[in-house]
Design brief:
Chain lengths: ~1050, ~475
């Protein structure tokens, strides 16, 4: 074994590099073994699972995580100075399956010879114990220079590997990179040009200062913070009700823009309500700890939910500030990190006396009544849409008067002979699923005979002798053949219709098409005792057999009528037939309809939505000979009937309706809102250890407290949330500053100095540059937790400013860029892609704050998930083009146009970056990107210049640079191809350009615009366009 | 025929539609057209499968809400004499109920259905499942399933991810991660949800098919019953296929230039993913278009199968996906949560699902696909023996019950015609051969050739696996 490790040092350095993965920091043999760097990871990975802190899973009563345990006389696992006498060494080198550690059933491979060698040397050198690095206080390394510290430590690492920095990135790349990093937006063409022109030494510094001063800086930082805070606009879980916590989101944006000290930022979010003379804004800040999901599932004990919320808060503190996987200790003591089961519940005690009761929806107290000051623009924008559309609706209405007069005259003549809105249908086929014999009589009435099953579905198939279908009328008829002369042959003579289905079928086709019915009315419905019982006609529309229509208890036995209106009128093809299904599946059964008749209508509006005669029927009854003699009320109804079918009116009316609905929502948001916040209840709750983490399995009672192994409680602090916050950001806490500095690093470099940002514990990765991480952590604290200062240091470093291209050799040596011998290159987060497309296209509405908005999303995604309970209506007007930060976040189904985003269910601080065909489809076909493409194309065509200049304009907007000759050739070729197509297919051009809310620019040729739109879309899909280079 | 053959045959059938541009691009990338990896990257883990697989793919028929084992499978004739009597404490043993029945007496309600024995195996099946009864000898019933959770979301999360709190990878994601893809035109893991008119009480969260901490390319892709079966699949109207092809060729060339300049291998992957997207634009609509299926198939699956989006139509789609080599197909049928009115509510869900589920088994069998396709039917928990509401009225339903429930499996290396495990006289506690949800997971993995303890993923410093930290056992007794 020794000979092997000697051989490894005999290899030239480059070879050693290949043998050892870059995660491993093995000690050179000349240096003493470091416990925390070299030994602890091996013990932690291989031994602590069974021989660590967690007493419930401890084997052989041996613990190796403390010196006392490892060196105890019982086992003599470690005998300092004597590897040969140490049981640990015997076991890891054993060959017998019963002896070897880790045991085969753990599925852990035996230790490598290098690992065994490290343990051997460590024991031989005296088995010196130490702490895990992250639990030691960070200190500035004495070797750190006065300035350029980042580059100093990074280049030291590179020198060891005989590597050096890559050259500085091109200026256009640099401004693009830093603009995305600090504001989440690409630079404008003007900003890029100005930077390219500025040859002063401080040109880059000026850009950085401008970006940090931009209000978009706060938005960019907020997106990071909202993911960690699991912020969403709904509860999650079963009800997934809306909440109105968005003013807290705006507080976050404001805090970052004001460069609030990060310790203060922390304190206000933990305990703003407990600060002396707390301001409303400080109370608002505590919404951070209410952003967890809430569960209102029926049948769930609210106390169980409340315990979940408390636990979620502690886990979030662990992940976001401490970089510890505290969630592990919910059920048992941490197997690896020095946190016991009791420590965990002591932490929960700080959050256990919130004045909450585990409820969700509108009962999720405590609330802060809050009125946002950031709704002015949203109101103005929504009002502008209404104002713009109201005249169009009014014009369309009055313009309709003229054709209405002609229509009315024609109808007047037509209805002289009487009018019926309904045409009785004659079935071509009648089916019963359970055997009832259905017979059609000459007038279309259907009579049931033969067997009388308990439940049955009838299918009535007929052609419709009308040009179109708007509704159906079902008449249920009494008959002497039925029990007591009523409606069915069942014991009571009553009927229960549980559901209907309206479908169409093309002759000979195997497929049925469902039609949606949006209204059901009846002349009589039995009074219903609750939502889930029989009576109301509306129960036939929901596929639920526990409700449905019955007329039981009607004053007299007389025919009953129900009318169903289709959501959209249906024009039937000649070979299409209607399939009407009556489902009779009630609980008791024995209530199948005995006799019925079905009629169809082609009238829209009133005729199929109510029981009163259709306006035209009333007109027939009125029997007037002159339109002028029609009663004003009837005339108004007739005008309404006319407008229902008057296509030129439909568009303006629907558009105005939508605008009014959205204005109503914004007005509600501009009023007083309930924001979920923290507040203590009068009598604190006792806190207990929960055995195995189960909410009602109380173990020993615990006081509020923090894990002593991290840092001591600050002297004199009360054991409150406020005290906890101060402990989290105390100078003695070794974790918080490191963890947050690492977040910032990850934001800029795509990966942290610690690549497991959520885990700084023993099982997390060690920092790639430990001295740098520590220096930055100390700098962060000593600068007064100054976020902008830290970011300035990072983005100003040569390390950050390197170009991101990599040679094949470098890529092979360091595929993950752990050594930082090149700049970071990674796909931008999807929210930045949307913002960037809007920005590049000049569509972005840059307003800060306000109620959530709804960017385009494919139709039906909410409806599918909630079976129609929630509907997504994209925002109209300027609200459509707000930044993604403001997009409404429904927890059960995150915005569809985002990918690899945090789920906002629990705290997330890592990054996910995948590369899938679904992402390609989103960028190709999402309406936002298409509308942005069209806007870019419009700008190209308005630009006075040749095709080449226009393509360069596109490149400058999308890539912040000019295209090269080979690139221009390809773009020109695709443009020509698209032009050739659309100039010969102008109809396709018009169709393709129907994107989003606005009509295409009338001043440009549609085929040309369509072709340029295709090329602009190509540009927005370029790898370079979606990548942080 | 192996799944690979099926895929290859299927792909070759499609290949004529692929343009020269696509061919040129794939040869540019040094990859033969017709290779069976999706984007050249989802090729599974080295060493997986660990053992010879019996099943190559899974169709998981998820019945969301908790079907009543008492009404459907677990006949307890002895209950008649207990009708209306309070459940003995010796049986209940402190079992929690939900707050919906925690303040009412737990009075025993015998099954609302009649049972008969079916097939050579004599399986006990309720009158509400007449079609399943006809394939009884192809199916293996596990009557001794049990779980730990009593509310829907945590129980379903555990049922599908092994843990009650959202955030772990779902079983389909684990399988896709371990085994990789056998199809280059479709994702490995597809999800189909029945279209229902009624607002569901239990939304189907996308974490039920999420990839948790596994890379998101392993997450289930929902096939919607909409014009776009996959979100953003359809090109905008007025953009013809030939222009899309040209644009993607241009995009591929420009990305290739960038790849040459930067050396970033992500760009090569991106080029492949855009090509996969292009292929999916053809393969997905072809897949979801059932018009070419003969009438005989619709008759087999029942009349509901003619209605797009129905459970029955989704069962036909599941069979088509199997034919195209998709690895993991998960159907969801909601609304099995019969807290009241068993005779209308529970029976309605039986009507929706009975014929198509049985037809799927029959259809796979006659096509020779059942041998290496595992079909799994079941929900997140069972129902309690006590009536909810007035026990002897037709209003009565049943509350959730985690301590026992019934599932069935067919094909894919499972012993057909077997009833495994048993419950006590009250269908309350497992009496024989308990199968925890994690044992089921271990068994499904085993049938796919995966040793569940060896398929791990390191996250937050821990090696996670589907079956979690507690001991999980492959249920040897049901293996063929």
């Amino acid at each position: 074994m020794f000979s092997l490790s000697l051989r490894s040092i005999a290899l030239p350095p480059a070879w050693r590099f290949i043998l050892l993965p870059l995660t491993a920091w093995s000690a050179p043999v000349t240096e003493p073994v470091s416990f925390s760097r070299d030994v602890l990871p091996i013990l932690s990975n291989n031994c602590f699972g069974c021989h660590g802190r967690d007493e419930s899973h401890r084997k052989a009563d041996l613990r190796l995580d403390t010196r006392e345990g490892a060196t105890s006389d019982d086992v003599r696992a470690v005998v300092p100075g004597k590897p040969e006498a140490s049981e640990l060494m015997k076991r890891i080198l054993a060959t017998d399956d019963d002896e070897i550690m880790p045991p085969p059933k753990s599925h852990k491979p035996p230790l490598t010879t290098e690992q065994a060698g490290v343990l051997r040397r460590w024991i031989a050198e005296g088995a010196v114990w130490g702490k895990h690095w992250a639990f030691e206080q960070p200190v500035r390394s004495p070797s750190a220079p006065k300035s350029g510290v980042i580059d100093h430590f990074v280049s030291a690492g590179l020198n060891k590997e005989r590597l050096s920095f890559s050259p500085e990135a091109a200026k256009h790349t640099l401004i693009r990179r830093v603009s995305f990093d600090l504001t989440g937006l690409p630079p404008t063409v003007e900003e890029t040009d100005e930077f390219l022109r500025d040859t002063t030494a401080d040109a880059y510094g000026k850009v950085v200062q401008r970006l940090l001063a931009s209000p978009h800086f706060g938005e960019r930082m907020a997106m990071w913070w909202l993911d960690a805070a699991r912020y969403a606009d709904t509860d999650g879980f079963q009800g997934d009700d809306n909440r109105t916590n968005w003013p807290w989101r705006d507080w976050v944006v404001g805090a970052f823009n004001a460069n609030m000290r990060f310790d203060q930022f922390t304190i206000e979010q933990f305990a703003g309500d407990l600060l002396p003379n707390a301001t409303t804004e400080q109370k608002l800040a505590t919404c951070f700890h209410r952003n967890h999901m809430t569960n209102g599932e029926g049948g769930r004990d609210p106390e169980e939910s409340r315990v979940d919320y408390v636990i979620d808060r502690v886990n979030t503190v662990g992940t976001t500030w401490l970089g510890l996987t505290l969630g592990c200790t919910q059920c048992h003591s941490h197997k690896f990190d020095p946190i016991s089961h009791a420590d965990y519940y002591s932490l929960t005690a700080f959050f256990n006396s919130i004045d909450e009761d585990g409820k969700a929806g509108v009962a999720a107290k405590p609330y802060l009544a809050y009125r946002s000051s950031l709704t002015t623009r949203a109101l103005a924008d929504a009002e502008a849409v209404v104002a713009e559309r109201a005249p169009a609706e009014a014009r369309a209405r009055s313009a309709a008067e003229v054709p209405f007069a002609a229509w009315l005259a024609a109808r007047l003549a037509e209805v002289r002979g009487g009018f019926s809105a309904w045409r009785v249908l004659k079935a071509s086929t009648l089916e019963s699923s359970e055997g009832t014999l259905l017979t059609a009589e000459a007038d279309g009435t259907v009579q049931a005979g033969g067997p009388n099953p308990k439940q049955d579905d009838y299918r009535f198939i007929a052609t419709v002798p009308l040009p179109r279908l708007t509704g159906l009328k079902l008449e249920v008829l009494p008959h002497d053949a039925h029990t007591a002369g009523k409606f069915s042959r069942g014991q009571s003579g009553e009927f229960i219709l549980t559901d209907i289905k309206v479908q169409v079928r093309r002759t000979g086709s195997s497929q049925l098409r469902d039609l949606t019915v949006n209204s059901a009315v009846a002349d009589y419905s039995a009074p219903q005792k609750d939502e889930r019982s029989y009576g109301d006609i509306k129960g036939v529309l929901d596929d639920d057999p526990r409700n449905g229509w019955t007329t039981k208890g009607a004053p007299a036995t007389a025919p009953h009528t129900a009318i169903f209106a289709l959501t959209e009128p249906l024009t039937l093809a000649p070979d299409e037939e209607l399939v009407f299904e009556l489902r009779q599946r009630s609980t008791e059964g024995d209530a199948n309809i005995g006799r019925f008749r079905l009629s169809a209508s082609d009238q829209r509006g009133e005729a199929v939505h109510g029981m009163r005669p259709a306006p035209l029927a009333d007109l027939a009854t009125a029997a007037v000979d002159d339109a002028a003699k029609i009663e004003p009320e009837l005339r108004a109804r007739l005008f309404g009937q006319f407008l229902e079918d008057h296509a030129p009116y439909q568009g303006p009316r629907d558009a105005l309706d939508r605008a009014k609905r959205q204005l109503g929502e914004v007005k509600a948001a501009a009023g007083k809102l309930n924001v979920m916040v923290l507040a203590e209840r009068a009598v604190p709750r006792d806190t207990f250890v929960l055995e195995r983490g189960v909410w009602d399995k109380h173990g020993e009672q615990v006081p509020p407290g923090v894990p002593a192994a991290i840092a001591a409680w600050p002297e004199g602090e009360a054991k409150t949330r406020l005290g906890l916050a101060r402990w989290v950001v105390s100078r003695e806490n070794p974790l918080t500053a490191r963890v947050l500095v690492n977040h910032l690093w990850q934001m800029l470099f795509g990966a942290g100095l610690v690549r497991t940002p959520e885990d700084f514990g023993l099982q997390g990765e060690r920092p790639t540059h430990p001295e740098l991480l520590d220096w930055l952590a100390v700098e962060f604290m000593e600068s007064g937790w100054d976020v902008k200062h830290l970011l300035t240091l990072m983005v100003s470093s040569a390390t950050y400013r390197q170009e991101s291209a990599a040679s094949a050799g470098l890529l092979a040596r360091d595929p993950q860029n752990r050594l930082l011998a090149r700049g970071p290159r990674f796909r931008l987060p999807s929210w930045m892609l949307r913002d960037a497309a809007l920005h590049a296209a000049g569509l972005l509405n840059p307003v800060i704050g306000g109620p959530p908005v709804k960017p385009y999303q494919p139709e039906g995604v909410w409806e599918e998930m909630f079976m129609g309970r929630f509907r997504y209506e994209p925002s109209e007007g300027a609200a459509q083009y707000r930044r993604t930060l403001y997009a409404f976040w429904r927890r059960a189904i995150a915005p569809t146009f985002l990918f690899d985003s945090a789920q906002r269910r629990t705290c997330e601080v890592g990054v996910s970056r995948t590369n899938t065909p679904l992402q390609a489809l989103t960028l190709l076909n999402d309406k936002t990107y298409l509308e942005a493409s069209r806007a870019l194309a419009t700008a190209m065509l308005r630009f006075e210049g040749g095709p080449r200049q226009r393509l360069q304009l596109l490149a400058r907007h999308v890539l912040s640079r000019e295209a090269s000759e080979p690139e221009l050739t390809v773009l020109q070729r695709e443009l020509s191809r698209a032009l050739a197509y659309y100039r010969t297919h102008p109809d396709d051009a018009a169709t393709f350009l129907r994107i989003g809310q606005h009509a295409p620019d009338g001043a440009v040729s549609l085929p040309d615009l369509a072709a340029h739109t295709v090329v602009a879309s190509l540009a927005l899909n370029l790898d370079e366009a979606i990548t942080h280079e | 025929m192996s799944s690979l053959d099926i895929t290859r045959r299927y792909f070759l059938g499609q290949c004529t539609g692929v343009s020269l541009g696509a061919m040129a691009l794939s040869s540019l990338l040094g990859r033969a057209a017709g290779a069976t990896t999706a984007g050249g990257e989802a090729i599974g883990l080295p060493g997986v499968p660990h053992v010879a697989p019996k099943a190559k793919r899974v169709i998981f028929l998820t019945q969301s809400g908790g079907p009543s084992q008492i009404e459907l499978f677990d006949e307890k004739p002895g209950l008649m004499k207990w009708a209306g009597v309070e459940l003995p404490d010796s049986v209940r043993q402190g079992q929690r109920v939900t707050t919906m029945t925690s303040n009412q007496k737990q009075l025993i309600k015998p099954a609302a259905t009649k049972f008969a024995r079916h097939g050579k195996s004599g399986a006990t099946i309720s009158e509400w499942l007449p079609h399943l009864a006809r394939v009884a000898d192809d199916v293996c019933f596990i009557k001794s399933m049990h779980t730990d959770e009593i509310n829907h979301a945590p129980a379903m999360t555990k049922f599908l991810t092994g843990h009650q709190i959202a955030g772990r990878p779902s079983i389909g994601s684990w399988v896709s991660y371990g085994l990789g893809s056998t199809n280059r035109n479709l994702p490995d893991f597809l999800v189909l949800i029945s279209k229902m008119q009624r607002p569901s009480d239990q939304p189907l969260y996308d974490h039920y098919w999420g990839s948790g901490f596994l890379p998101s390319r392993y997450q289930g892709v929902k096939l919607r019953n909409a014009r776009d079966p996959v979100l953003y699949l359809r090109d905008p109207d007025g953009l013809p296929r030939e222009l899309r092809r040209g644009m993607l060729d241009g995009l591929g060339e420009l990305n290739q230039l960038r790849l040459d300049q930067t050396g970033d291998p992500e760009i090569a992957t991106r080029i492949r993913q855009y090509e996969m997207a292009y292929r999916m634009q053809a393969s997905v609509p072809e897949l979801t278009d059932l018009r070419g299926e003969p009438d005989e198939v619709f008759n087999l699956y029942g009349s509901d199968s003619r209605r797009a989006g129905s459970y029955a139509a989704n069962c036909i789609l599941a069979r088509r996906l199997v034919e195209r080599g998709v690895r993991f197909i998960q159907l969801f049928h909601p609304d099995w949560d019969h807290h009241s009115r068993l005779t209308s509510w529970c029976s309605a869900r039986c009507r929706d699902t009975d014929q198509p589920s049985a037809a799927l088994v029959t259809d796979l069998k006659r096509r020779g696909l059942l041998d290496d396709t595992l079909v799994v039917w079941g929900g997140e928990f069972g129902r309690g023996v006590a009536g909810q509401g007035q026990w002897d009225s037709s209003e009565a339903g049943r509350d959730h019950h985690p301590r026992c429930f019934t599932m069935w499996l067919a094909g894919g290396g499972v012993k057909p015609g077997l009833t495994y495990g048993a419950t006590d006289d009250f269908s309350y506690n497992v009496a024989e051969n308990p199968v925890h949800v994690r044992d089921l997971h271990a068994t499904i993995m085993h049938l796919l050739g995966i040793e569940h303890e060896r398929l791990t993923y390191r996250f937050q410093g821990l090696d996670f696996r589907l079956t979690g930290v507690e001991k999980a056992n492959v249920v040897r007794g049901i293996l063929a």
